[in-house]
Each structure stands twice: as structure tokens, then as C-alpha cells.
Design a protein that fits this description.
Number of strands: 17
Shape: elongated
Largest sheet: 9 strands, mixed
Binding site for D-dopa: 217, 265, 329, 358
Bound molecules: flavin-adenine dinucleotide, 2-acetamido-2-deoxy-beta-D-glucopyranose
Enzyme class: oxidoreductase
Mean pLDDT: 89
EC number: 1.4.3.3
CATH topology of the largest domain: D-Amino Acid Oxidase, Chain A, domain 2
Distance between the termini: 13 Å
Oligomer: single chain
Strand content: 15-25%
CATH architecture of the largest domain: 2-Layer Sandwich
Low-confidence stretches: 93-102
CATH class of the largest domain: Alpha Beta
Number of domains: 2
Family: Belongs to the DAMOX/DASOX family.
Pfam family, one: DAO
């Protein structure tokens, strides 16, 4: 049987994960084209800026929760068996803990901790993230060691808190790792910027004309001709990457005192990757420049919320900064689009896999598996024609 030529547009976590899964099937010949490749840092390219962690914010019973659910076992497997991928469990390093260095909790063995502040317990944000903040979320039996932290361990401003075993993905290692795994399986990579999805049909070469195009363009989907999807909008995320270490803890709070579009989260990356401190979630904001006032608020909040990060000083001014960053999360109203479409002009099939918002890593395998299923369906269909 002649192989199906698959042309994937986009080399973020969505495109790379989809390419990796497709490349394991000998029926498929896969080419990835993108404007941005692993190693690039550009606001338009969301993937390098993510923390990234597995903290589901999807609502129970939605497609998004199914994708998150399907992703966990694969991330867990990488953390157990492939340390070279840069995915690691939080809580593995031991750290001298001292009561004077209390974070929001003194819990000694927590890995990934989620704190709901008293003042957020009834807020709109808390309602929106109800599943993540819940004492009994849908994912409690998916991730290991889910538990509610004892009330007596919490500081006074915290209403309740949960913890579970989770991973942090060092995106500076993981994206090149995904690319390498693809190359090992024969996937070709090329730099290209498309004005219109139609250009992707003949882009590789005449004899390898694409039979299927896979659209993993993230926020690019908002402007790409032929698909201009107006429901895709940016949610600006600003972060600071520092050398100071968390001792293997990952924390996230239900809110901040600095407005609804700011966040407070902290996670340590594997293999000397430093600590990512966030952040913001500024919907509709395309500004790719670092806002230094926001950067200062981010560091101040982290220093207060997690004293151990600053050696107990709670002083933000001494952080050892690797870099500031701004990424635009590709948010799609109604959730990510994993869907089949047939181009009317020349009958080429398009499988869409874009619009993952703030969850592109934690849903990556679930979405890629769903995209592969659609490619498989087209392949069976084409064989019958
Ligand atoms: C600060 C921040 C923190 C985050 N934290 C997390 C987290 O903890 N956990 C988590 O799961 N997610 C997190 N995310 C979200 C995650 O980063 C995104 O959901 C994910 O990176 C989206 O991946 P993608 O491959 O769809 O898009 P992108 O990474 O943006 O890649 C898009 C690709 O398409 C290419 N492209 C677009 N248009 C064209 C065109 N016309 N022609 C050619 N190529 C094109 C681009 O060049 C690029 O290669 C975070 C995001 C940010 C910004
Ligand atoms: C999630 O939804 C399912 C039904 O779709 C239900 O059975 C289950 O109890 C829900 N879980 C939680 C934690 O709400
Ligand atoms: C692709 O190439 C074929 C054969 O050369 C041609 O018929 C077709 O119009 C081209 N399609 C596009 C979208 O350029
Ligand atoms: C991808 O989908 C988006 C949104 O529908 C669209 O704007 C873009 O043209 C599509 N790109 C490709 C390569 O299909
Ligand atoms: C932290 O929790 C907030 C909700 O309180 C959520 O918006 C955000 O995505 C979470 N951040 C991370 C990095 O998981
Ligand atoms: C961060 O680490 C550096 C050493 O790398 C140290 O000098 C500095 O005081 C630390 N900053 C804080 C805020 O703890």
C-alpha cells in the first residue's frame, strides 16, 4: 500500500506529539513544517514558555477532561522511565525544612499543592476553576496520592488545600526531545510560514503531495487564511525563570490580591532547569513585551507565598533571574478543536488540533491520540476510494 503523506503545520507541543504518534505507524510518511521550531523563543510560540505542569483545570465530563485523563499515564511513564525527556515528579529532591520557612502549608511530603485562599473561596475565579480547586475533583483517582491537606498545617489565610503527585515538564529539554524522537522515526522537519492552509498541500514536493494536513498552529489559527478562526484568542502569560530552587515542590494559589488576571504559581524544572514563577492570564492581550511592574509583583508574591524559595527572607529583590518571558496561550472559546474537515477546493483532508489554551501539555497525548484516530479514519476511507 502506498503510504499516506501527512503534512503537519506547527512544531509546538501539539504538532510534535501528533507527529511522534503518527510516526510509529508505517502507513504514514510525516513532514512537519513550522515558522517556529524547538529552540526558538517568540511570544507567538507558546510551547517554550509553559511551566509546564499537569494540573487539570478541565471540567468533569468534557472532552478536555477526557484528553487530560488520557495524557496522565504517558507523562507518568516518561517521568518513571525516560529522565532524558525532562519530565520529572515533583517532590523528589529533599530539602531541609524548618518551621520558620512555612509556605502556606508545612506539609512535609507534598509534591503538587493547590491552595484555595479564604478570600477566593466564593469568587468567580474559584467557580471557574472549580474542578482544580475541588476537594474531590474528577482526577483524584487518576493522579497518585491525591489528598486533602490537614487544616492544622495551613496558614490562616488558606481556607483549604489539596496535594497530589504530579510532574513538571522542562520545556527546554522536552520539545527538543520530542523532535529527536520524531527524527529517529523518519519524520522530516522544515522551516516554512504559510499564508493559507492551501499552500501546505504541495509544499513538500510534487510527488509527496499531502494527503492529509494536520493543523497544529496554536494561536496562528487565529490569522491563518482559509481557517481564520475568530474564536481563538491569546491569554497572555508572563513568567520569570530563576536559579533559586523550590526543593521539589510545586504550588499554585486560587488567586492574588493584584487582580483577577494575575496568578501565583511556582514549579521546579528537571535537570537544572531552574524554577518557573508565574504569572498572569490576560485574555485578549497580544503584548509580547515584558511588563517589569508585573514581573516585580510576580516575584513579590512568590517570595511571600513560599519563604523557603528565598531562604526565609521573603525578599524578592535577591532572586537570581535567568530570564523574563511572555507567552500567549492559544485559547479557543468552547475548547480545543480536534476535528476533521475536507477542503472544498481540492478534497484534501485537514485534521485540526489547535486551541489548547493553558493546557497544551497536560492534554497533549489525549489530543494527539484523538487526532491520530481521525487520520486513521481518513486512511481507511481513502483506501476504499
Ligand atoms: C506562561 C504559560 C504557562 C503555561 N503553563 C502550562 C502548563 O503548566 N501546563 C500546560 O499543559 N500548558 C501550559 N501552557 C499552555 C501551553 O504552553 C500551550 O497550550 C501549548 O504550548 C500550545 O501548543 P501548540 O503546539 O498548540 O502551539 P504553539 O506552541 O504556539 O505552536 C504553534 C506552532 O505553529 C506554527 N505556526 C503557526 N502558524 C503558522 C503558519 N501560518 N505557518 C507555519 N507555521 C505556523 C508555529 O510556528 C509553531 O511551531 C502555558 C502557556 C503559557 C504561555
Ligand atoms: C464526573 O461526572 C461523572 C458523570 O459524567 C460522574 O459520575 C462523577 O461523579 C463526576 N465526578 C465528580 C468528581 O464530580
Ligand atoms: C498542487 O499541485 C497539483 C499538481 O501539480 C495541482 O493540480 C494543484 O492545483 C496544486 N494545488 C495547490 C493548492 O496549489
Ligand atoms: C488551522 O485552523 C485555523 C483555524 O480554523 C485556520 O485559521 C488555519 O488556516 C488552519 N491552518 C491550516 C494549515 O489548516
Ligand atoms: C493555577 O490555578 C489557577 C486557578 O486558581 C489556574 O488558572 C492556573 O491555570 C493554574 N496554574 C498552573 C500553572 O497550573
Ligand atoms: C537566589 O539564589 C542566589 C544564589 O544563586 C542567592 O544569592 C539569592 O540570595 C537567592 N535569592 C533569594 C531571593 O533567595
Amino acid at each position: 500500500m502506498t503510504p499516506t503523506n501527512i503534512h503537519i503545520i506547527g512544531a509546538g507541543v501539539a504538532g510534535l506529539t501528533t507527529a511522534l504518534l503518527l510516526s510509529r505507524d508505517s502507513r504514514y510518511r510525516v513532514v512537519v513544517s513550522a515558522k517556529h521550531m524547538p529552540g526558538d523563543y517568540d511570544t507567538e510560540y507558546a510551547s517554550p514558555w509553559a511551566g509546564a505542569n499537569y494540573m487539570p483545570v478541565s471540567r468533569n465530563g468534557t472532552d478536555a477532561s477526557k484528553w487530560d485523563e488520557a495524557t496522565w499515564p504517558l507523562l507518568e511513564e516518561l517521568a518513571h522511565n525516560h529522565p532524558e525527556a525532562g519530565v520529572h515528579f515533583q517532590g523528589q529532591q529533599s530539602m531541609k525544612r524548618d518551621q520558620s520557612l512555612r509556605a502556606a502549608s508545612t506539609n512535609k511530603s507534598s509534591e503538587c499543592e493547590i491552595y484555595t485562599r479564604r478570600k477566593d473561596a466564593q469568587s468567580a475565579t474559584a467557580a471557574w476553576f472549580a474542578d482544580l480547586l475541588s476537594l474531590s475533583p474528577w482526577f483524584k483517582d487518576i493522579v497518585p496520592n491525591f489528598r486533602v491537606l490537614p487544616k492544622e498545617d495551613l496558614t490562616r489565610d488558606i481556607e483549604y488545600a489539596t496535594a497530589f503527585t504530579s510532574v513538571c515538564i522542562n520545556t527546554a529539554i522536552y520539545l527538543p526531545w520530542l523532535l529527536s524522537q520524531c527524527v529517529k522515526n523518519g519524520v522530516k522537519f522544515r522551516r516554512a510560514t504559510f499564508q493559507h492552509i492551501r499552500e501546505a498541500v504541495n509544499a513538500t514536493d510534487a510527488e509527496h503531495r499531502a494527503n492529509v494536513i494536520v493543523n497544529c498552529t496554536g494561536l496562528g489559527a487565529a490569522v491563518l487564511g482559509g481557517v481564520a478562526d475568530e474564536t481563538v484568542v491569546p491569554a497572555r502569560g508572563q513568567i520569570v525563570l530563576v536559579r533559586n530552587e523550590t526543593g521539589g515542590r510545586m504550588l499554585n494559589f486560587s488567586g492574588t490580591d493584584d487582580g483577577d488576571d494575575e496568578a501565583c504559581y511556582i514549579m521546579g524544572r528537571a535537570l537544572g532547569g531552574g524554577t518557573v514563577i508565574g504569572g498572569s492570564y490576560q485574555k485578549g492581550n497580544w503584548n509580547g513585551q515584558v511588563d517589569m511592574d508585573l514581573a516585580n509583583r510576580i516575584l513579590e508574591r512568590a517570595a511571600r507565598a513560599f519563604p523557603a524559595l528565598t531562604g526565609g527572607t521573603r525578599e524578592a529583590k535577591n532572586f537570581d533571574i535567568i530570564r523574563h518571558g511572555v507567552g500567549l496561550r492559544p485559547v479557543r472559546e468552547g475548547g480545543a478543536r480536534v476535528e476533521l474537515e475536507r477542503l472544498s477546493d481540492d478534497g484534501v483532508w485537514v485534521v485540526h488540533n489547535y486551541g489548547h489554551g493553558g493546557a497544551g501539555y497536560q492534554s497533549s497525548y489525549g489530543c494527539a491520540l484523538a487526532a491520530v484516530k481521525l487520520v486513521d479514519e481518513i486512511t481507511v476511507l481513502r483506501a476504499r476510494l
